[in-house]
Amino acid sequence: MSETGSRLRKLLESPNFEPQNYVKQLSQLSDGDRDLQEHRQKVQSLADETAQNLKKNVYKNYRQFIETAKEISYLESEMYQLSHILTEQKSIMESITQALLSTDKDETSKEMQAAFPKETEELKQRTLTSLLEKVEGGKNIMDTPGRHLVYNGDLVEFDVDNMSPVQKVHAFLMNDCLLIATWLPNRRGAVKYKYNALYELDSFAVVNVKDNAPMKDMFKILMFPDSRIFQAENSKIKKEWLEILDETKKNKATKDRHSKEEVAPAPPARAEVSTNPFEQDDDDGGDDNEGPADAEERVDLSLEWIQELPEDLDVCIAQRDFEGAVDLLDKLNEYLKELPVTQRVKALRATVEERVRQLTEVLVFELSPDRSLRGGPKATRRAVSQLIRLGPLLHLTQHKSFAQFGQSTKACELFLKNRAAAVQTAIRQLRIEGATLLYIHKLCNIFFTSLLETAKEFEMDFAGNTGCYSAFVVWSKSTMRMFVDAFSKQVFDSKESLSTAAECVKVAKEHCQQLTEIGLDLTFSLQSLLVKDIKAALQSYKDIIIEATKHRNSEEMWRRLNLMTPEAVAKLKDEMRGCGVGSFEQFTGDDCWVNLSYTVVAFTKQMMSFLEEGLKLYFPELHMVLLESLREIILVAVQHVDYSLRCEQDPEKKAFIVLNAAFLHDTVLPVVERRFEEGVGKPAKQLQDLRKSTRPVRVNPESTTSMV
């Protein structure tokens, strides 16, 4: 059989195998149906064997498949990071190249102006005048002395609300303003445009509009409280507009600043007060009568490391050597403390300013949730520590929006946002499969382990900033809400049984207790967030028990319970003993009968189970909810026994009902009271009052009085 199977396998695996020809030949060679049936069985057994081998190989390599998939995922993440780093380095190199080109362009322009000052100025004036002659209502624009044309071109204006074309315009960018002129539909001679608006350069901001088809090659001009959107002919012209607008605005701001410095009178000699650690009082470097020339002579900025500082900072930022960049800034800070503040020192600070801003942006991005979260809290330690160190040095920059980033509170905020995103991502990636309790074990392990690691890393990074600890406590409570949302969605919203919910809450409490190792107790927060769902679960399960008890009561025949086998009797004894009813054996005999009704036995088991699960879920806010639920459940059974005893006329059944009532009153209710007191820590007065008010009173065998 094995040889035949091997030959058949070789035939089927042959590349020249044709099923139709094979079946045709087989039919011709076979003697009848029997041969075909045998051959069919051989093919079927071979197929089963192949499927079995394939399944074994899959099981054998299952773990390897999982590990390979994880490694592929990690590799994809690393490739994404590498691509981002390369893109970032490319943008840095382009910015450096543009800065060098603009510097060369400025130097060439200055040389031309120095060589032919009058000719250059007159040429600019004539060019602007000739263009403005084509604008209707633009004659008064040349009244301002020194105004000349920088750039001009055609644009299409779009509506800000619905992004539809509005009109075609021509923009004139001058050294101190921007003129917008609309095209005239009916031209009159040399006049092509009509005056529309004139904006001072310092009265608006230019914002690039991201390309999103069909909206392409657009930029926005913001003038409080309005804005206008223009579209260039192509991306190259749009880039020229953005660059030239930005450069012209900077030149005007620099020129205005110099003009104010020249016009402003010299202040009286006094000690200079500054929050900049790179600035020192002029008195520190010499006597009170030291002049600017003497101060300049005392400042030595010709050291090689100072001359190469801007380039070294660029290299450190490009290579992500954050420690080296902060060390250089710290070294410069220490050196400038001993020097007076001069024009050369101010120029050096202005040169370093852009590098400080870039370094701050990179460090902030390192802590942003957009970065890979795979490394855990330790991966953020480097950026956090350097951002904290950079805090005192950020007074170099004149931008307040960047200066605030260097403080410890901002580093703390970015660190906690990063960790919150990591926790949220980990919870989302957790697959909901298998039993609910297994999922909750995984969820608690992921969440509380992340919280514990974050707390330890936070304590290490912000050890010298005790003021940040309150922010961590607030963050912990907010992440706890995230955890409870996922927990409640799986446990309570899916209508799991009360026993499953109790086990899940117990697991969450045990994991929460682990946080006390670092002095963080979030048990109260966990309980306060779960109290609403637990209360609803208790009341829902209480209603289920009451409905089930009423249904059994409606079918009650008041007969002894027959369990049929001794094993079933032994099992019931164990269940009652587990519930705390140790004296249950007195209600059973040597045979398989139990001297209680099925309704009372089922009620006892169900109520004791509810009590045990309720105690697992218990905390002080649920005290009255659990107590009232127990009281309502007990009343249903007691009232049914009372009603049956009053209505029953058969003396034997009446005696049997009294026996069941005594079991409830003298055996079950004391066990409920004792177990409740053990679980809660204080007696339940309501249950005691209920038992006293339902004491059986036997008047005579014929009486129908059962309970008071």
UniProtKB/TrEMBL annotation:
GO terms for cellular component: exocyst; growth cone; perinuclear region of cytoplasm. It comes from the Eukaryota. Gene3D superfamilies: Exo84p, C-terminal helical domain, Exo84p, N-terminal helical domain, Pleckstrin-homology domain (PH domain)/Phosphotyrosine-binding domain (PTB). Keywords: Cell projection, Cytoplasm, Exocytosis, Protein transport, Transport. It is found in: Cell projection, Growth cone; Cytoplasm, Perinuclear region. One of its GO terms (biological process) is exocytosis. Its main location: other. SMART domains: PH. Residues 251-294, 687-708 are annotated as: Disordered. Residues 148-250 form the PH domain. Residues 251-263 have a biased composition (Basic and acidic residues). Residues 279-294 have a biased composition (Acidic residues). Component of the exocyst complex involved in the docking of exocytic vesicles with fusion sites on the plasma membrane. Belongs to the EXO84 family. This is Exocyst complex component 8. It comes from Scophthalmus maximus.
